[in-house]
Specification:
heterodimer, A: alpha+beta, Beta-Lactamase, Heat Shock Protein 90, five-stranded antiparallel sheet, five-stranded mixed sheet, 9 helices, 43% helix, B: Rossmann fold, two-stranded antiparallel ribbon, 5 helices, 6 strands, 18% strand, CheY-like_superfamily (chain B), Sig_transdc_resp-reg_receiver (chain B), phosphoprotein (chain B), Chemotaxis protein CheY (chain B), Bact_response_regulator (chain B)
């Protein structure tokens, strides 16, 4: 190999090395021992939207608005050459000129050099703003989920402890509890499936479907998007009405029918959802002598769960229920 | 005869409030509320002073702290039924050293803790 070949080789290696450095999207700097910028790659200029003139020849700690001028970072970078130390992933959150608030991880180490006695420092920056943001969102979601799970267990516990036991066999108690448990599970599934709203018609269909299509008539009102806290109370109210119909009402006799309709009406200028349940062709109906947990559950679900009202009328032709709930 | 102690219940989840109320009534207490949010609880406190209170911490996103502060100022003992753990409550001086029985509790334990609070223990 003659000198000319060697020169060509070195030159092509240099061009290749420069090409690699400039291809990297991650910003990087090479500093001298005093912290002055010797070189910056294209990634650095593009990420921080600065020019070569604002960068090369200046101290790292004087760049931009002095975002890197942090006493601890200064100390760490200062130890790299004399102590062969390294900085790995030092996090800096700062307001940068033109690009705004960012979270950057700074890594620095002595630049590897064939003479093995390099006094240059390579600085790498990693923009983790988006990653940190999505981590924060995940943390919030996790906290909400945890809260929701604990609430859900409390709700299930409440239903288990309040489902009537008096004058019932263990099997009757179990069926009554599991029915309510199922209503909670279905409401939860619906509330989780949609981002934060659930459709009333889905909920109604879900509650009545097991009775068989010939046993009910739904006359749907306008589409109603239920807010997440409204789903469980409505699901429980429908469950209690359906259960009652199986035990004493329209579903307990062949030919018995449930009519369900809903509408949105204005009350004091605010929209109110009205759900009407009407049974017909069932056995003769008389008001219960004792109010069990079921009717209490309907009432509290409407009043406290929906901030609305529940009215049950035991008419001779069949039970009528009128539920109202403010919606917006 | 001794009057039954009055317990203010603050809980946003009505089904849980319902069970708390039933548990307290069965144990011979009178229940004030349940109040589902801070403003309803403060309203109830204006009308009467309970002998003790049971508070959930997160009321549909709002913290119960203002209620706890009023209770402290009028020397009404209270306990928490919150899903939060101690670390979550550290930042709130009105809540941090209060006994928390958690979101699901054994009735006997809740009633014992409440009894202790009423006795000033």
């Amino acid at each position: 190999m003659n000198l000319e070949d060697l020169y060509r080789l070195l030159r092509s290696e240099h061009v290749q090395a420069q090409g690699i450095v400039d291809t990297l999207e991650e910003p990087l700097l090479v500093l001298d021992q005093t912290g002055c910028v010797l070189t910056a790659n294209r990634g650095f200029y593009e990420t921080f939207r600065v020019s070569r003139d604002d960068t090369v020849g200046r101290s790292l700690f004087a760049l931009g608005d002095g975002q890197w001028d942090i006493a601890e970072l200064r100390r760490l970078v200062g130890e790299i050459i004399p102590k062969s130390a390294a900085v790995v992933g030092y996090e800096v959150e700062a307001e940068f000129p033109t690009i705004g608030r960012r979270t950057m991880l700074v890594s620095a180490r002595r630049l590897v050099h064939p003479d093995n006695n390099s006094t240059s420092i390579l600085i790498l920056f990693e923009d983790v703003t988006d990653r940190r943001r999505s981590e924060a969102q995940k943390d919030i979601l996790l906290a909400e989920t945890r809260h929701r799970m604990k609430n859900l267990l409390g709700i299930v516990r409440s239903l288990a402890s309040q489902t009537d036991v008096e004058g019932r066999s263990a099997k009757e108690y179990r069926d009554a509890f599991l029915g309510r448990f199922q209503a909670v599970a279905e409401a939860e599934k619906l509330a989780l499936a949609s981002s934060d709203q659930a459709d009333l018609s889905t909920l109604v269909e879900q509650a009545l479907q097991p009775a068989g299509a010939e046993r009910y008539r739904i006359v749907p009102g306008p589409p109603v998007a239920l807010k997440q806290p409204q789903v469980l109370p409505i699901s429980l109210i429908l469950h209690e009405l359906v259960t009652n119909a199986w035990k004493y009402g329209a579903f307990s006799k062949t030919g018995g029918l449930v009519h369900l309709t809903w509408d949105i009406v204005k009350k004091d200028g605010k929209p109110v959802l009205q759900i009407d349940w009407r049974e017909e062709n069932g056995p003769p109906v008389t008001p219960p002598i004792r109010t069990g947990f079921g009717s209490k559950l309907i009432d509290l679900s409407a009043v406290q769960g929906l901030r609305g009202t529940a009215e049950l009328k035991y008419e001779p032709t069949g039970l009528r229920a009128h539920i109202t709930a403010p919606v917006d | 005869m001794h009057e039954a102690p009055r317990i203010l219940v603050v809980e946003d989840e009505y089904l849980i409030a319902m069970e708390l109320e039933a548990t307290l009534r069965t144990a011979g207490y009178r229940v004030i509320g349940p109040a589902p949010d801070v403003s309803a609880a403060l309203e109830l406190l204006k009308a009467e002073r309970p002998d003790a209170a049971i508070l959930d911490v997160n009321l549909d996103g709002q913290w119960v702290t203002p209620v706890a502060e009023v209770l402290r100022a009028s020397f009404v003992p209270f306990i928490l039924t919150s899903g939060y753990v101690a670390a979550d409550l550290q930042a709130e001086p009105a809540l941090r050293d209060v006994v928390n029985v958690g979101k699901t509790w054994r009735s006997e334990f809740l009633l014992k803790v409440l009894g202790d609070a009423l006795k000033g223990e």
